[in-house]
Write a structure and sequence with these properties.
Layout (H helix, E strand, L loop, with lengths): L1 H49 L2 H7 E8 L5 E2 L1 H7 L5 E5 L2 E9 L2 E8 L2 E4 L2 E3 L3 E10 L2 E11 L4
Parallel strand pairs: 1-9
Antiparallel strand pairs: 1-2, 3-6, 4-5, 5-8, 6-7, 8-9
Length: about 150
Amino acid sequence: MLRKILLLLLLTIALVGLARAQRKVGNQANAEIEKEIFKVEHEKDEAMQKGDAATLDHIYADDLTFVGTQGQVFTKAQRLADMRPGSREYFSFKRGDYSLHIYGNTVVLTGRSSSVVKYHGEVVRKPRQFMQVYIKQGGEWRLAAHHATFVEER
């Protein structure tokens, strides 16, 4: 009986140690994914400000669904056409309040933008809350979905 209790105790200790080790490995993997996502997000933001459609074409998934602040829905081709030079001018570009959730090869990123941009002749100053879905395809993170909505100043 004592041997069974001792064996059970040792097995429990081993399993707890294994679970902790897996959690650390998972946290390290998640930290690496987070780093990769924010790198792509920074590249995307830079490309948007410069009107760099070639970089955006690489970052956007082929089946991108992009929902703008007025509810307009764009495909990848429509969004890239909308990014043509002269269609927008950024006076300020600020994003933050990020929250990131990782689900294997899918990442949901939410955040807030307080950018000021001249878009098709109209200056837009309203802050926006956004959600983006990144998926890993061919070893690279691609933006598969975006949705933004105007929100009140904080």
